[in-house]
Amino acid sequence: MVNLYLNENFNKADCKIIIFDFDETLYYAPNIRQHSINYQKSAITTLTNKTEEEAEKLMKQYGYTLENKNAEAFGNSIQYFGISPDDWDKFKKEHLFLVPKEEIQIVPNEIFKALSKKYKLYIVSRDFFENIGVKANLYGIDLSNFDEIICPKAEDNYFTPKSKTPYYEMILKKNNCKPNNVIVIGDRYKVDILPIEEIGGSGIQIQTTEELAHTLKTQFL
To answer: How many domains is the chain partitioned into structurally?
Structure first.
């Protein structure tokens, strides 16, 4: 289901920039949520002395379940599981979150190519730049259609902000734009949409690449 979170000042005619989340937005698999839950549980059992049963109980307590897709970003809650930020970052670097290629669905690259002629396109992610490149290459996502990918990088010591707000503000400043000139599209409200709402912007929450493709073709092309 597509959910619109449009500021009263948003006018599509004034939109100059579309910002996309990456994971679970630009690619999708029917059981991707299960893959994500398994990855988080693996991090807990690997980085702590907790059993799978204990990890599952804690994950349920803090909302990291198959049914709850609006949970806080896992990286913002690691302290509840006894995981340090350094250990979490190290785990992500050493254990890349990958969904098997044969399960993946993506939006046709031609849609983003057409969009790029009308809008500036950005990817804003809390995953590492190097990981995004690996996934895009594996899944067939053409990153050349995007003006810039904004995310943690090796030279920044993989620092991951707790919110995407600084990234969104960076894009606004760089393009001399106001929040109503930008729209964010992502799969998670708290992680992707709420940070742009907090600075006066708008967002669209999608759940599948089919919904994303339909939204882009009917609303922006």
So the answer is: 2
